[in-house]
Fold this protein.
Amino acid sequence: MRGLLEDVIRSTPIYSMLRARRQKRELVSWERRGKTLPLPHIVKQRAIRELAEKHGLTIFVETGTYYGDMVEAMKNHFCELFSIELSGELYEKARRRFAGDNRIT
């Protein structure tokens, strides 16, 4: 039941807005700390988008899907997205999350 509830929550527009606010707070905190490691997720997203644009990349491949947040962030920037997850449980969650998008495998 918990997994299903998480999936439903993650698919709502408010989740995306709350995640964006959290990422902004993480970015400000990271900058105040002197930009130390680890990088906030939003910084990684920006770097991937910039590299894709610079090199004309249309295919995104990631390993370690986890909850699929990077795929979610990149899905409007690439024509095809491939995400590899070894955990059966996390794979199923990601599969359900992106079931309606045939560009994501």
User: Anything to note?
Assistant: The mean pLDDT is 90. The longest strand covers residues 59-63.
